[in-house]
Write a structure and sequence with these properties.
Layout lengths: L3 E5 L5 H11 L6 H10 L3 E8 L3 E10 L2 E9 L8 H15 L4 E7 L3 H9 L3 E6 L10 E7 L2
Parallel strand pairs: 4-5
Antiparallel strand pairs: 1-2, 2-3, 3-4, 5-7, 6-7
Length: 149
């Protein structure tokens, strides 16, 4: 695996992250949403994954008291299948633990078996369904969670 670094996301990274979102999601976030998260949300923790030449992925979460909620995780399609998603998710779990979180949860499309399998590798289990959660096609979300300690 090539050299990479995970570092705190800054507003300068938004253009790269918008591109990753556009390549990864049918309903990507807007610049304004990322600005809100980075500048005004004290619970938000966002990180980018950089290779030697590109920003190739990112992860975001909210940590409120002892609960961590993954808001987004994405890797550029051309870098998928090389364990960068695992590196980002592992980093996010460790960061949540360091910040005092005891539980971590997320929502994932019921059709996204690849992501669900990744989360299961880290001990997340299904916890319920959010009906019609995704507004682009009314797909249900599977809620997954894990106790961190």
């Amino acid at each position: 695996m090539e050299n990479y670094v995970i570092r705190k996301m800054t507003p300068i990274d938004i253009d790269d992250v918008l591109y990753i979102d556009l390549q990864s999601f049918s309903h990507p976030w807007t610049r304004e949403v990322f600005e809100q998260e980075l500048i005004h949300n004290n619970y938000a923790h966002y990180y980018v994954l950089e290779s030697e030449k590109d920003t190739i992925g990112y992860v975001g979460m909210w940590i409120v008291e002892d609960d961590a909620q993954i808001t987004n995780i994405a890797v550029l399609p051309s870098y998928r299948g090389r364990r960068f998603g695992e590196k980002l998710f592992s980093f996010a779990m460790q960061h949540a633990l360091q910040q005092g979180a005891k539980r971590l949860s997320l929502e994932v499309r019921v059709s996204n078996k690849i992501a669900q399998n990744l989360y299961k590798k880290f001990g997340l289990v299904p916890g319920g369904i959010r009906k019609n959660y995704y507004t682009d096609n009314d797909e249900d979300a599977l809620v997954m969670w894990v106790n961190l300690c």
